[in-house]
Please model this.
Amino acid sequence: MAKKGKAKGAPPKGPGRGGLVTSALTMAEMPQDGKSEVAFMGRSNAGKSSLINALVGSKVAHTSSTPGRTQRINFFSMVSWYIVDLPGFGYAKVSKQDRQTFGQAVETYLTERQSLVAGVLIQDVRRDPEEEEAMVVHWAASRNIMLIVAASKMDRLNRAEQQARKQALEELYGRPVFLISNRTGEGMDQVKGALRGLGLNL
Ligand SMILES: Nc1nc2c(ncn2[C@@H]2O[C@H](COP(=O)(O)OP(=O)(O)OP(=O)(O)O)[C@@H](O)[C@H]2O)c(=O)[nH]1
Ligand SMILES: [Mg+2]
Model:
């Protein structure tokens, strides 16, 4: 993809914890070492890349207020496993051609990847889940993949609103939803705890 030049603040590459290992569009470009992977999924602008940075504790993933920033499948090394940052769904302004390219790549990844052990579905706490989120839940169930649901941007709500949204989202999803803020770090321990519970060190 010879489109965009590398941004100045490119994330550090290499073997360090959380470092970007590869940015893939085909299975052949993905790591072949069989380590476990956790895919971060959600609508564009939901805060996937920000959550990854908060978990890693350094700015390894590109974030942007412009939706559609992440357009490849990015693998970050957690030494014994990988964090996988996926392009967001539901954003119409990315060109159709690009969306088809990465949409196909994501679909292949999600349906075929053997080392994928868990997913983290991120959605803005102020929104309700829509068809795409329902598809992720269905996909995880059908592939028997453990799914963590995190509602981001809780810092945008007051305490009472947070409680109300948590309850509403848990009812809509029919499962626990962690409220998180990638700004303040609130709720991060719950996500970390859930990942650690899967034997993934953080
Ligand atoms: N207030 C607040 N802003 C957040 C939070 N998480 C992310 N943001 C902001 O939301 C915007 C999008 O965040 P990203 O992490 O780039 O979102 P993404 O899901 O990776 O988006 P794509 O790569 O486009 O799919 C950025 O401006 C972030 O600073 C949060 O918890 N609280
Ligand atoms: Mg992103």
Summary: The domain at 20-197 is CATH 3.40.50.300 (Rossmann fold). Confidence is low (pLDDT under 50) at residues 1-7, 10-15.
